[in-house]
């Protein structure tokens, strides 16, 4: 598990700017979704992974805890999978053709295509019968052409998202930033995300916390879900 220690200067900045450390502590569980980003065999199973992230194995219990807490409080859980196909290879050619070596490109493409060995969700995840599964084709699940995640969340009446998964500083941060830019109240879970190094993990969390949204531990998010369950207004928020 990553060592997470938010510096005092960051906490002071956040408190001065927003008035409190956790601006989304008033989350309404019924309008909150847990987003589980890319916890797939392609990142977690060393035997088939094109991009193995060892720390991602450690966060699974926390993701399962949050998923159970949110389901019990009336929220939604959305598992987001990276998928590769010929269409995205053409449309995202800067990544596939220019930013990866041919062997790595082939390993990623073959592994992450629908039905490929890396596309499956990690078997240690607790996936409920009512949970949603959304495929995306870019780092961010919200960017145009990547997925229908935003439409799914709007249809479900979601206004707050808790972001977990891997890699913290790539797909998770990209998805979280774009969620905020699409006007979702966005929280990154500090011990529910995983990167390849502590430095990359902390840098992403700090940058997000300073300008884009909230950062909470699993225990903090669980406590707010429990405290707010059944007590929030069903009226749409205006902020």
Key terms for this structure?
Rossmann fold, 239 residues, single chain, disordered C terminus, 10 helices, six-stranded parallel sheet, alpha/beta
What does this structure look like?
The protein is α/β, with parallel strands linked by helices and 239 residues long. The chain has helices at residues 8-18, 41-44, 60-72, 86-91, 93-98, 102-112, 149-155, 168-181, 198-211, 218-228; strands at 32-37, 76-82, 132-136, 160-166, 185-194, 214-216. It has a single domain (14-83, 120-228), classed as Rossmann fold (3-Layer(aba) Sandwich). 41% of the residues lie in helices and 16% in strands. Helix 3 (60-72) packs parallel to helix 10 and helix 8 (168-181) packs parallel to helix 9 (198-211). It is globular, with a radius of gyration of 17 Å.
Order of helices and strands: HEHHEHHHEHEHEHEH
Tally of strands: 6
Structural class: alpha/beta
**pLDDT average, as an integer?**
92
- Strand residue percentage: 15-25%
Instruction: Give the termini distance in whole angstroms.
Output: 34 Å
CATH superfamily: Isochorismatase-like
CATH topology: Rossmann fold
What is the strand and helix layout of this fold?
Layout: H1 8-18, E1 32-37, H2 41-44, H3 60-72, E2 76-82, H4 86-91, H5 93-98, H6 102-112, E3 132-136, H7 149-155, E4 160-166, H8 168-181, E5 185-194, H9 198-211, E6 214-216, H10 218-228
Parallel strand pairs: 1-2, 1-4, 2-3, 4-5, 5-6
Helix pairs in contact: 3-10, 8-9
């Amino acid at each position: 598990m990553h060592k997470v220690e938010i510096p005092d200067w960051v906490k002071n900045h956040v408190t001065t700017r927003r008035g409190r450390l956790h601006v989304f502590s008033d989350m309404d569980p019924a309008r909150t979704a847990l987003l589980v980003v890319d916890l797939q065999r392609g990142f977690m199973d060393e035997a088939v992974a094109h991009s193995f992230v060892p720390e991602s194995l450690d966060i699974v219990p926390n993701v399962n805890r949050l998923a159970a807490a949110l389901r019990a409080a009336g929220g939604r859980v959305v598992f987001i999978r990276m998928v590769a196909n010929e269409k995205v290879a053409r449309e995202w050619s800067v990544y596939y053709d220019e930013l990866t070596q041919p062997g790595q490109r082939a390993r990623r493409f073959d592994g992450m295509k629908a039905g490929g060995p890396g596309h499956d969700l990690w078997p240690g995840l607790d996936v409920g019968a009512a949970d949603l599964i959304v495929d995306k084709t870019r780092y961010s699940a919200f960017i145009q052409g990547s997925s229908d995640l935003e439409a799914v969340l709007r249809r479900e009446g979601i206004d707050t998202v808790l972001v977990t998964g891997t890699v913290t500083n790539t797909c998770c941060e990209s998805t979280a930033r774009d969620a905020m830019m699409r006007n979702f109240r966005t929280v990154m879970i500090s011990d529910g995300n995983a990167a390849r190094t502590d430095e990359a993990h902390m840098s992403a969390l700090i940058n997000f916390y300073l300008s884009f949204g909230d950062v909470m531990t699993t225990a903090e998010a669980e406590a707010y879900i429990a405290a707010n369950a059944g007590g929030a207004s069903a009226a749409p928020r205006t902020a």
